[in-house]
Design a protein that fits this description.
By secondary structure, this protein is mainly α. It contains five helices and no strands. Helix 3 packs across helix 4. The protein is elongated, with a radius of gyration of 16 Å. The chain starts with a helix and ends with a helix. The model has no long low-confidence stretch (mean pLDDT 86).
């Protein structure tokens, strides 16, 4: 299930953006699937803003994104405790975001 955003992203000419031995050659870039994260989007928006203090719309999030992909110097240091307090879950190291969101929905 592709949408306009995915099609636009895949049509970009990456040969101009990437400077390496492939410069000037047509490169093909494929974005990871996003079906599961789209299904869980309302919860993902809530989780990202409430736990990690980032805006869902400011990120490229796929079904293969890990929670820790979004942990930066600006992330609240108590984000793991926030997840415990708010959702009653432990955040596993390098867990996929969709798996964490599925854990949350199964505990409700």
């Amino acid at each position: 299930m592709k949408n306009e955003e995915d099609d636009e992203f895949s049509r970009l000419d990456w040969s101009k953006a990437i400077r390496n031995r492939f410069a000037g050659k047509k490169l093909q870039f494929e974005c990871a699937p996003r079906e599961k994260i789209r299904f869980l989007e309302p919860l993902a928006r809530e989780f990202l803003s409430g736990i990690l203090a980032i805006d869902f719309d400011d990120c490229l999030i796929t079904d293969e994104s890990c929670v820790h992909d979004f942990v930066t110097d600006e992330t609240p240091p108590d984000y793991k405790q926030r997840a415990r307090d708010r959702y009653g879950i432990e955040l596993p190291e390098h867990a996929l975001l969709v798996d964490v969101l599925s854990m949350i929905t199964s505990t409700d």
